[in-house]
Prior knowledge:
- It is a single chain.
- By secondary structure, the chain is an alpha+beta fold.
- It has one helix at residues 25-41, and strands at residues 7-9, 47-49.
- The protein is built from one helix and two strands, in the order E-H-E.
- Helices cover 27% and strands 10% of the residues.
- A two-stranded parallel sheet has the order 1-2.
- The mean pLDDT is 85.
- It is globular, with a radius of gyration of 13 Å.
Amino acid sequence: MQVPPPRAVFLSWPLGHPLGEPDHPAQQRWVLLNAFALLESASSPGTLAEPGWEWGSNPFEG
């Protein structure tokens, strides 16, 4: 029996970096804000958000 996570943000990033790259607080803040937004917007358990952000690109500044 598999139990899906209640809600999750999936990022295809290296293991050990769930919030983003070291020394990139804006990127890490975006990850957390998107996760919190998913808590409010998910309509059912098992909702999985995939923002499509790529490791090494940093469009989060500004």
